[in-house]
Amino acid sequence: MLRDTSLIPLSRQHQHALALCVRIDRASPVGARDLEAWQAEMAQIVEGEIRVHFAAEEQVVFSKAAEFAELRPLVGELIAEHAVLREDFACAERRGMSAERLAGFGKRLSAHIRKEERLLFERMQELMNTAELAELGARLVDALKDATQVCAVPSETTRLQGEK
Known about the structure:
Elements: H1 8-27, H2 35-65, H3 72-93, H4 99-127, H5 130-143
């Protein structure tokens, strides 16, 4: 199903995060000397997008989705996953991540995004009418206004091998 325009801003940010997940996966196992660069990039992403993104999802999207009884269990799962991902990001900000945790983070974040895109967003588009989706989109634009709308540039260390 094509993504409704109301959800496209979140989907674009998801693409940025999925690119990070792919780079982490391809770089794994990350050597101890490279962990600092990965954690610095994660901290930059948290500051630029993630805090605002998670808040927008929780306050706008999840609250709307919870109005549908069938989506409440999924919303509960996604909120719990946000808590785990926030702890991963906080660990990176403290520069306390191990290579194993970094690899696990990439897998957790990727699975979480795919669940939002394939399960939550798809079902919301089926359940909501055009006017409801437009209202959701307007609320999201406002909620996301403080997020950086550009993809973080990987450092020399975190760039995919073969990139120049």
